[in-house]
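Support request from a user on the community tier.

User writes: "When I paste my structure tokens into the form, the page sometimes reloads and wipes my input. The last time it worked, I copied everything first. Here is what I submitted, just in case something in the input itself triggers the reload:"
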């Protein structure tokens, strides 16, 4: 089965079924990762070498298994599709983001704060309506890159083992990649590997957002604002996305009880509920664009 058809089938499965409600493989992987962290980082005493060892034990066996299964006659094509389907979070992104926009439209700020708290790691209990919209829009733009486009990218590059390697690495970064006393050393490898795996996809996503939105503004914000952002990958994605939408993102946010002054992103008005939906439309349109380009490329090379 062609990559384009496999990708389209996996995206269709995600749109139809969403994330598996029972026995999601990432839930089992999360338990494994938590056990490895307790073993190799007891009381936060693990070193970088311990983090590298734990990362290898968590990620490499499933990746090798995916590579072997994808080569099996008769079922390899199904393994490829299921691997991408399990890694995608496109429908889930909408299921989490749209209720935030809906609560804002209804003027239910407490509910909007609660729902956006499912999307972001910052403190949301004191956000005003604009702050909720800003958090929701930022999350859609960034998670669209991490949970959707990067998974597609690594699937197109390396098939089932590529997407498994990426998704598990990204999950470990979400669990271990913090600059806290417990994870500063142990989580170093998980954070750096995830940065490396996301480097090219993030820039392709930034370009995609620019193509589908206000291109001149997106490219200008990407060039001027992304270098100011701490994350080498979130900076281009969110700066280009904010510019494409014509909204202002960034600014102050509270993480783990401490206020952080983040550089500004984008230009234009403060975000509102509809901008969360517009950000989702950027992601949806980008997925269709990637699949269409892949299909055209395959037909042209056939």
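"...and here is what came back when it finally went through:"
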């Amino acid at each position: 089965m062609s990559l384009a058809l496999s990708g389209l089938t996996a995206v269709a499965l995600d749109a139809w079924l969403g994330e598996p409600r029972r026995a999601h493989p990432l839930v089992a992987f999360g338990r494994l990762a938590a056990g490895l962290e307790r073993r190799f980082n007891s009381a936060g005493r693990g070193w970088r070498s311990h983090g590298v060892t734990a990362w290898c034990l968590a990620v490499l066996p499933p990746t090798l298994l995916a590579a072997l299964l994808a080569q099996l006659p008769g079922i390899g094509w199904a393994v490829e599709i299921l691997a991408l389907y399990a890694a995608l979070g496109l429908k889930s992104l909408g299921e989490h983001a749209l209720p935030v926009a809906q609560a804002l439209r209804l003027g239910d700020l407490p509910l909007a704060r609660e729902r956006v708290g499912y999307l972001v790691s910052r403190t949301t209990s004191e956000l005003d309506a604009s702050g909720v919209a800003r958090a929701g829009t930022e999350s859609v733009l960034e998670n669209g890159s991490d949970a959707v486009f990067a998974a597609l990218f690594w699937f197109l590059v390396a098939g089932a083992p590529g997407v498994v390697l990426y998704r598990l690495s990204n999950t470990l970064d979400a669990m271990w990649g913090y600059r806290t006393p417990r994870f500063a050393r142990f989580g170093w490898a998980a954070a750096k590997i995830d940065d490396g795996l996301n480097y090219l996809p993030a820039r392709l996503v930034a370009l995609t957002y620019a193509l589908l939105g206000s291109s001149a503004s997106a490219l200008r914000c990407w060039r001027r604002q992304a270098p100011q952002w701490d994350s080498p990958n979130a900076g281009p994605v969110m700066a280009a996305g904010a510019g494409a939408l014509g909204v202002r993102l960034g600014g102050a946010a509270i993480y783990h009880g401490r206020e952080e002054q983040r550089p500004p992103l984008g230009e234009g008005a403060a975000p509102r509920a509809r901008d969360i939906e517009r950000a989702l439309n950027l992601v949806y349109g980008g997925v269709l664009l990637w699949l269409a380009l892949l299909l055209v490329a395959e037909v042209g090379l056939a």
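Agent notes: The reload is a front-end session timeout and is unrelated to the input. Residues 3-301 form one domain. DSSP finds eleven helices and two strands in the chain. Escalated to web team.
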